[in-house]
Each structure stands twice: as C-alpha cells, then as structure tokens.
Amino acid sequence: MTALVSLDARTGQPCGEPLPTATLVDIDAAVQAAQAAAADWGASDGATRARLLRELAQALEADREALVACADRETALGEVRLQGELDRTAFQLRRFASLAEQGTPFVRVDDPAVAGAPPVGHPAMWRQRVPLGPVAMFAASNFPFAFSVLGGDTASALAAGCPVVVKAHPGHPALSQQVMALVRPVLARLGLPAGLVGMVQGAAVEVGVALIRHPLIAAGAFTGSTRGGIALLAEANARPRPIPFYGELGAINPVVALPAALAARGAELATLLAGSITLGCGQFCTNPGLIVVIDGAATDAFVAGLAEAIAPLQPHAMLTPGMRRAFDAGVQHLLQAGAQPLVQGAGQASAPGPHLLQVPATRFIDTPALREEVFGPSSLIVRCADEAEVLRVLDAVGGSLTVTLWGVDDDTPVNRALVRGATAVAGRVLFSGVPTGVAVTAAQQHGGPWPASTAPMTTSVGDAALDRFLRPVCLQDAPAWLVQRQGVPF
Amino acid sequence: MTALVSLDARTGQPCGEPLPTATLVDIDAAVQAAQAAAADWGASDGATRARLLRELAQALEADREALVACADRETALGEVRLQGELDRTAFQLRRFASLAEQGTPFVRVDDPAVAGAPPVGHPAMWRQRVPLGPVAMFAASNFPFAFSVLGGDTASALAAGCPVVVKAHPGHPALSQQVMALVRPVLARLGLPAGLVGMVQGAAVEVGVALIRHPLIAAGAFTGSTRGGIALLAEANARPRPIPFYGELGAINPVVALPAALAARGAELATLLAGSITLGCGQFCTNPGLIVVIDGAATDAFVAGLAEAIAPLQPHAMLTPGMRRAFDAGVQHLLQAGAQPLVQGAGQASAPGPHLLQVPATRFIDTPALREEVFGPSSLIVRCADEAEVLRVLDAVGGSLTVTLWGVDDDTPVNRALVRGATAVAGRVLFSGVPTGVAVTAAQQHGGPWPASTAPMTTSVGDAALDRFLRPVCLQDAPAWLVQRQGVPF
User: Fold this and answer.
1) What's the pLDDT at B487?
2) Which of A34, A168, A378, B30 has its Cα between 20 and 30 A from that of B363?
3) What region, left, alpha or beta, does residue B19 occupy, with left being phi > 0 and alpha being psi -120 to 50 degrees?
4) Does the complex come out with an ipTM higher than 0.90?
5) Which domains are delineated in chain A?
6) Average pLDDT, whole number, for chain A?
C-alpha cells in the first residue's frame, strides 16, 4: 500500500508522520453515513442548504492564514494565488447558496391536464428534479481549495440536495484534513448529520476505486488526469448499476492565432501567451498547450517573439515530484514524436523550465502522440498552410475544454467556419485573452467533447454544475397535498 | 449473415424476397452523407427545421392507409392502435417543429461583463447550445412509427440541428423502406441534402455495431432490449472517442397498490390493470410487470379479482416469433426463480396467453432473476408485510421508467416516504391510472435510473428529448458580428 505523506512541494521533504489510509471499512462507513443523511438533506429547503454553504464559506475565510500556509507548503502554488483561490472557493459556496435559496433546484415545469384523446389530451403532469443521492467527489491536485474538499463539486452537490463523500487528493493531505476539521463543527452547529460531508484519504488508487464501486454511491465527480478519469469512468460503468460519472479530464486548449491578429498586435499577444503558458507552472486544465498558426511573416515574428518572451521565465516548483517527472517525460514524448524544440528551459530540481516546440500541421494531424496533454509549462506550435488546415487541426484535437480564436473580428464565411470548427470541439470558445482563468458565472461551460470531459453536456464550473446532481422526474395526477408543495421538496 | 425478411407477424410467413443488408460501405456512405449535411443543417434557422418536420408529418398522414396496412402486416399491432400511433408520430414531428420555430434550440444565457477582479469580475460571456452532429438512431420493434424512422428520436435530433442515420428495426423492414421512400422526395422538394435523413437495414447485429462505431457518428439513440442497449452502450464507450449513448432499455414498472386504494375501488383497479398488462400484447416499455401489495383482506380480494379479470383476455400476436419464444422463456425463468403461478393462459401459436404470478417480498428482494423484464402480457405480484417492505422492494428494483402509487392520497410521513422511494427509482411517478400511454408533453420524463435508461438525466419522449442532441458552449468576448446573431445559429 502506497504511504500517504504530506510533502513540502518545494523540497520534497516529508512533514510529519505518514497519515492513515482509509480502509474498506472506513469507506463503507463514510458512504453509509452519507446515505443516512440523504433523505433529509434531499428534502431540505433552499434556506437550509444556503445556510450550510454560507457557513462553510465563512469558516474557510476565518481560518484563511493557516489554510493558505498549509496549502502553500504542500503545493508551492504561492500565497497570492492561494489567497485568490480561497476567495474563489468562498465565492462559489455563496453562489450555490444563492441558487438554492432562489429555488433553482426546485424549479417545476407545469403541464396542466388537457382534455381529449391522445396525442393532444393528457393528464396533469409536472416535471421536477430530484437529488441523485451520495456523490463521490474526487479532489484535484492543482486546485487545493476550488476543486477540493469544499470546492465547486461539493458546493454544487450540496446545493442540489446530495451528501458528499470526498476522496481527498494525496498531494495535499494535511490541508484536506484541516478543511475537514472546519466542516465538522459547522455541521454540528447547524444540527446536521456529520455524514453529510465525509472524507476518505489514501495515496493508493484502491481507495478511489472502492469509493466509486460502493453500491450506495449515486454519482462521481472528478477533476484530474485523463488516465485516472478513464479508470474511474470504467469502474462507474462496470458497476452492476452504472452511475453518472462527471470527469473533467485533460485538454490541450488550442489557441488559434490568425495572421490578422498577429499583424496588428503580435508582440503583445506573445507576451500574454508566454505568461499564460507558465502561469502556476502550467498546472491548469486550461493551460494553452497548442498554438495553431498560419505561415507568413507576421506569424514568424510572433513565434520569435513568443520564444523570446518565454525563455527567461522560471516557473515555480511543481505540485509533486511525480508531476515533475511526468512533465519531463511528456516533453520527451513530444520530441520523439517529431516536434522540434524552440525553447528548452533547463529548470531546477523541483521547477521545470519553460518549453516551446513546433511541428507542421500535417505531422500533427497524423500523429496522435502529439495531441497528448503535457501537464506543465510547455506549448506546441502547429504551423498550417491556411484556414482549411487549421480546421483539420481542430478536428484532429477532437475535444478540449477551450479553443481560443484570435483574429476572427469580421463576419466572413471563413471566420464563421472557424467559429463552427471551434465550437464543435470545445466547451468554451474565447475571442480574446487567454484560456487560463475560469469565471464562475451563469454562462460558464467547463467541459467539452472527449477527452476533455466524460460527460460533455455538463459543466464542472458555473451555475449549471448543479444540474449534474439532479435527475428529472415527471409526476402524473399527483394528489392535492403533493401539488401544493410548490417549490418545496417532498 | 442473418437474412432480412419481411414477415407476416400473424402467420410467420415471409412476404417477398429477402431484403439487402447494409454493407460496411453502405453504412460509411450514409454516415458520410450525414456528416456532409451537418454544418448547413446545424446552422439552419428554426423556420427551416420546422418546415421539414411539418412536411414529414404531412407525408406520413397522406400515405396513412398504405403505411398502416404494411405496419399491421409486419407487427400485428392492429389498425386502431397503428392509426393512433401514426397520429402521435405526426404530432411529435409538429411539436418539435414548433419548438424549433420558437427558438428552443437557440436559447442563450447571457452573462454581460462585470468589471473588477475575479471571482466577482468576469469577461462578457454567453452560453449557447450547439448540435452534436450525425446521430445514429436505433429504431424500436414495438413502435413501428413513433420510435422508428420518423419517430421521436429523429424528430428531436432534426429539431436540434443534427442529421440522422436510422438503423431500421428488422421486425418491420418493409414499413421502414416505405417511410424512407416518403422522406426522400420531401428532402428533395425542400432543397435539402438526401444525407440529412439516411437509413441502414440489416438483421445482423453487425450493422448496428458498425454504425455506432463509425468515427463521424456523434451520438446514439436507442429504444429496445436491455441486452441490446448494454451491448451498444459498451461499443459507444469503447470508441477511441466515446460518445453519448441514449439507451431507453427495459423496465418492470412497479404498480404499488396500497390497501386504502384497494378497499375503496379494488374491483375497478383490477379490471384497469388487467387491461394494461395485456394491452398491445404487453409489448410496451411501460407495461406494468410488477404489482406491489401489502397483505390484507382488500389485497386478497384485489388479487382474486385481477386473476379473474385477466384470465379470459386473449392478447393479439406478438411482434415476431423470436419475441414469442423469449416471452415463454421469461415466464419459465420467473417460475424457476420461485414465483407461484396464479394465471397461466394457454395462448396460441403466435399469441401468448396472459400470465399472473406471485412471490413474497423477501424472496423478490433476494432474487435478482425475479427482477428481469418479461416482455409481454405477464405481471408478478409481490406481497409485502408493510410499507417499509414496499420501500425495500422499490429499492431492489433500482431503476424503472415508471412507478405507480395507488393510495397515497393523504399527506402522511409514510406517504411522503413512499413518494420519495418512488421518485428515487423512476423517471415518472403516477398517482392514478396505469403506466401504459406516454404523453408527449413539456413535463414528460421517459427514462429513469439504470437499467431503465443508460442516461437517466435525459428523456426520449417529450420536449426535453431535444436536449440530448445539443451541447452547451460558452462564448467569451465574442466579436460584435457574432453577438448580433442573437437567436440565429452561426
């Protein structure tokens, strides 16, 4: 069994003794406790759910200094970023509180009876959503607050009326425990069962597998690697009763930089992009791993400028030694698949240097290995002959969280085709700026066709994240007492 | 290769020569043609989509007599039922026409920019849905119009902006050809590509498998057996790029008949239920295959009345000889698993007699074999000691298209628990009447937890069926020309 140890991300040194790993008995107890809480929580009203979510936000903020210090030690993400991430996490909790309070989970579609024979006539019906039940939430390595114990998945599941069992990420085990230690007194103070938010920990894959296999788990939510997500999806599908599995997996996030944009503001865009590639040591699911360009003078200047801008940047340490090794291997993989190196930063023990590579479009299209995500500060330039080849490159990518289109400012047939090509493969299409930075809003869509997501119709960020945990049910000819519970769960 | 032959369902005799089976080349050609039509159709406006759907409805109605005669020969479902089903199919086409015209597929969630730093500040965004692309539609045996070539899946996919390749059901191959022969001139008259609605035929499973494996197919929609649906779902998941697969599989549709209802109107309910079990020879996905009762005098009288009412009913012939054999085997299976026979109708060569069986709740809960759907005029009575045992029976069922609750007219804790228990396992909960008969409305939910559906958050009947073929995309900082295309696809 792999030991669970809290490591200092900058030094790789352990802090304290190994932590206990959840046994099958622990996992069963956590899920049973969640199931025991499910009926009452599913029948709770919006005000009750909002109160819990707001108190959790407040608890995070009240313990901000200690939490950020612990997170920084375990992740090396830096205090500024972690303060911002904690703010975002509290914001998310309060946003879902508001949605619960406004009645979003309880919205009904009313269909009064229509007299007469079918197909026109029909009985009185309404459509309402019911919570799925206990959700297994798999925390991410790269967002120790926002996609972790009290992150967006937990917030949206609780708002939807579902208990949560968190599988903590082994990259920040001490922080996960510290956050859970805040949750318990909040639940107790509000008179809510401790099982409503449970947690299991472990460095071995068996812990997550046992959790998703548990018969009482009703859905899985995951943010992480493609390999890990595929393994858990297979487990969810192989259950005697398969369950929804919402996996937000890897993405290479193409940035299409058209000559028009590069001629107008190539130097500025090169600086912007160099910053986005190296931000947070490139450890974002929206990191721009692919830059798609059309050959020409403006493009040559942009590529030279990008190389010049990125070469001197030294990203901070990676989240774990394992991720550092995986990054080096990923870059080697691209080189072996035929990518030419433009910038090969030397880096340091725990912190890699930036990497910029280049490949012709034809080779990119023919070589699946060039489309694998390299998690870290690296990006691959794909050189196309024209817009038609850009479209073939996007089609080869197949699925991504984002596609960025720079330079489609005019309504032309070519630009429309590019917009269609981008929307066909992405969950979010940007027309300016860089894909890193994912706003928590009503319109957000953080997902996309495979391999970006195992459930591309859903989002793991933004208001619609709630929809993942509510299943529609039609109630036909309901008795008066049930009809009257308008907006109140039963 | 299994031969494709149009059979007279009443005599089992072939009508005409064997029909050609689609080859891999045929399947590829149909999908390529659908893909070639995808961009323009995806960019079409609501009026264009509505025009096609309405003309298809009209074409069905114009050829009504010949279509119903052919359908009746191939399915033995009878003229009255088939006339009604054709009406329903035309109604569905027109309903999705109206939704397209009203702009349902084009609805946008607008999120204007908010100034300031994140998490509060964010760029201008909107959320819009885009069509998935070519849909593989697997027609059902038991609805030769409404879940077939121009059925609800085709209507909703076209309204969503997706081309369709139909895998016709081998149980009614001549009818499928006859309907397709109506589609082609409509497409031609409207200047639409023939590939927008394609069809492949074949009795061998390889045809469907090749279709769902095709790299250009973007989603699958299926109504049929649990076994067939599981096999196609596995294919959809095993693709290099998995795709959504909307399978509406089997269900046993528990009817919970509580003593209060049986004491008040047991005789009337027995007659109603006997009719529902044998309607259409029990060949409905909403056929009530399970009757859950609580021991007592009113229940004993109801069971006796039900046995008396159902025994003399002689259902019509089944859809195919294979389904006739599967029904007999299914009943034997229940008997071997410990069910006691109450009514064992002798039946005829092609038409089985009605069957009514009985089992104690404890045995039902412990015996998975008793929960398998028997497609045909059969139902299993499960006798419970009390409401708590009823809840355990529903939990053992796990997932069903419908649950019917007779006798929860008062607002009591027990009745609330029963409503919660029913909604936890069903897509639709009825409080009066019988589950057969599925209205096409805004509130309909035809789906449910596994094994009722492979995608329990979706419905294959009603307005929300459209949602299955549209994927949300967020557009961020879009240029003016794109913003102005409000309600118009790009």
Assistant:
1) 66
2) A34
3) beta
4) yes
5) 24-249+453-483 (3.40.605.10), 254-430 (3.40.309.10)
6) 96
Reported as a single tens digit per residue, the pLDDT across A339-367 is 999 999 999 888 999 999 999 999 999 99
Q: Is the pLDDT of residue B47 over 60?
A: yes
Residue B233 near residue B224 (C-beta atoms within 8 A)? no
DSSP H or E run through B206: helix B205-213
Cα distance between residue B411 and residue B389, in whole Å: 20
Residues from chain B that touch A406, judged by Cβ atoms under 8 A, are: none
Mutant choice from B241, B450, B473, B484 vs A, greatest count of A C-beta within 10 A: B473
Q: Which of B130, B444, B481 sits opposite A411 (nearest CB)?
A: B481
Q: How many residues make up chain A in this entry?
A: 490
Distance from CA of A98 to the nearest CA of B (A): 14
Per the annotation, the verdict on A248 as an active-site residue is yes
* Alpha helices (runs of H) in A109-193, residue ranges in sequence order: 152-160, 173-189
The whole-model pTM stands at: 0.97
**What would the two tokens of residue A284 be?**
């974002």
Query: B467: which chain A residues are within 8 Å (Cβ-Cβ)?
Result: 457
Are the beta carbons of B303 and B262 closer than 8 angstroms? no
Alpha-carbon dihedral sign for residues A243, A246, A249, A252: positive
> For residue A331, is it left (φ>0), alpha (ψ between -120 and 50) or beta?
alpha
Distances (CA, A) of A447 to A107, A248, A477: 24, 6, 38
Six token digits for residue A72? 């920084």
Q: Which residues of A touch B443 (CB under 8 A)?
A: 109-111, 125-127, 474
B128 dihedral zone (left: phi>0; alpha: psi -120 to 50; beta): beta
The residue type of B133 is G
B398 and B426 Cβ atoms separated by less than 8 Å? no
CB A140 within 8 A of CB A169: yes
Which residue carries 């995986």 as its tokens? A326
CA distance A391 to B163: 21
End-to-end CA distance of chain A: 44
Residues of A within 8 A of B242 (CB-CB) are 450, 454
Q: Are A128 and A104 in contact (CB under 8 A)?
A: no
Output phi, psi for A145, to 5 deg: -110, -55
User: In this structure, what are the phi and psi dihedrals at residue A240, rounded to the nearest 5 degrees?
Assistant: -55, -40
| Chain B nearest C-alpha distance from A320 (Å) | 27
| pLDDT per residue as tens digits for the range A181-197 | 999 999 999 999 999 99
Dist CA A189 CA A487 (whole Å): 26
Give the Cα separation of A112 and A110 in Å (integer): 6
Give the tokens for residue B104: 């349902």
- Strand order across the A426-430 sheet: A340-344, A355-360, A378-384, A290-294, A254-257, A400-406, A426-430, B470-476, B125-131, B109-111
Tell me the average pLDDT of chain B.
96
Give the CA-trace dihedral at A201, A207, A212, A213, to 10 degrees.
-140
Which residue reads 């692309």 in tokens? B133
Q: What percent of chain A has pLDDT over 70?
A: 99
Tell me which amino acid residue A300 is.
D
Other beta carbons less than 10 A from residue A64's beta carbon? 14
pLDDT for residue B250: 85
Q: Which of B233, B428, B454 sits opposite A474 (nearest CB)?
A: B428
Q: Which of A455, A250, A230, A232 is nearest to B454 (CA)?
A: A455
Cβ separation of A477 and B449 shorter than 8 Å?
Answer: no
Q: How far apart are CA B166 and CA B173, in angstroms?
A: 12
Burial pattern A400-415, b for ≥16 Cβ within 10 A else e, equals bbbbbbbbbbeeeeeb
